[in-house]
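FIELD: query
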Amino acid sequence: MSYNLFISRLTRLNLIKNARTVNNSETDLCQKEYFLRKTRDILANSRFNV
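FIELD: result
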């Protein structure tokens, strides 16, 4: 799977998850930001390891 395709699928899944989320509390937003940051770190590291 190409990098761009992976990102687009990940984004789509995240948008679907956000749409299903009724409670947009501060903790929920913090968790999403944390998830996105961790994902970015993992992807940045994996690109060099391939």
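FIELD: remark
The chain has a mean pLDDT of 73.
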